[in-house]
Amino acid sequence: MNKKEIGMRLQQLRNDRHLQQKEVATVLGISPSAYCDRENGHVMLSAVEMDKLAEFYGMSLDEFLRSGQPVLHMHDHSSQGFNAYHMQHQHGVSDDLMKQFIDALTANARAIEKLAEQQVRMNDLLAQRG
């Protein structure tokens, strides 16, 4: 997202909650005019500011930045104990693209499992030598 798009997102979130710019500026610890610059797309939010606003609005940083786009949820865990990525299917994501994404995640999970197994074996070998 560029500065203008983030500014539009800021305005949308604020208006949806019937807040004034000075109220959101207080959350960030900046002046209302400095917040206005961010909302108008003249100044980019810092990473810390984005994090504060996402928390203030009760959403993940991904949800904060990607309104109306697929959102990754990494708080879920699969039955095997590995983080599972769940993507909300929203407008603009084809089933084929979603399948490719899930296939890539599955391949990465398998590779990580193998690396973890190799690390355990290396640790065992080093302990035997020690």
Describe this structure in words.
With 130 residues, the chain is mainly alpha-helical. It folds into two domains: 3-65, 434 Repressor (Amino-terminal Domain) (Orthogonal Bundle), CATH 1.10.260.40; 72-129, no CATH class. It is 62% helix and 3% strand. It is built from six helices and two strands; from the N terminus they run H-H-H-H-H-E-E-H. It has helices at 3-16, 21-28, 32-39, 47-56, 61-65, 95-129, and strands at residues 72-73, 86-87. A two-stranded antiparallel ribbon has the order 1-2. Helix 2 (21-28) packs across helix 3 (32-39). The chain starts with a helix and ends with a helix. The model is unreliable at 75-91 (pLDDT under 50).
What's the helix and strand layout?
Elements (H helix, E strand, L loop, with lengths): L2 H14 L4 H8 L3 H8 L7 H10 L4 H5 L6 E2 L12 E2 L7 H35 L1
Antiparallel strand pairs: 1-2
Helix pairs in contact: 2-3
Task: Please tally the helical runs, counting DSSP H or I stretches of 4 or more residues.
Answer: 6
Low-confidence sequence ranges: 75-91
Helix content: 55-70%
Radius of gyration over all CA atoms, rounded: 21 Å
Count of β-strands: 2
| CATH superfamily grouping of the largest domain | lambda repressor-like DNA-binding domains
What's the quaternary structure here? single chain
Query: In this structure, how is the largest beta sheet organized?
Result: 2 strands, antiparallel
Strand content: under 5%
Structural class: mainly alpha
Query: What gap, in angstroms, lies between the N and C termini?
Result: 52 Å
**CATH fold call of the largest domain:** 434 Repressor (Amino-terminal Domain)
CATH architecture identity of the largest domain:
Orthogonal Bundle
How is the largest sheet built, in terms of strand order?
Answer: 1-2
Overall pLDDT score:
80
CATH class of the largest domain: Mainly Alpha
Shape: elongated
Order of helices and strands: HHHHHEEH
Provide the domain count. 2
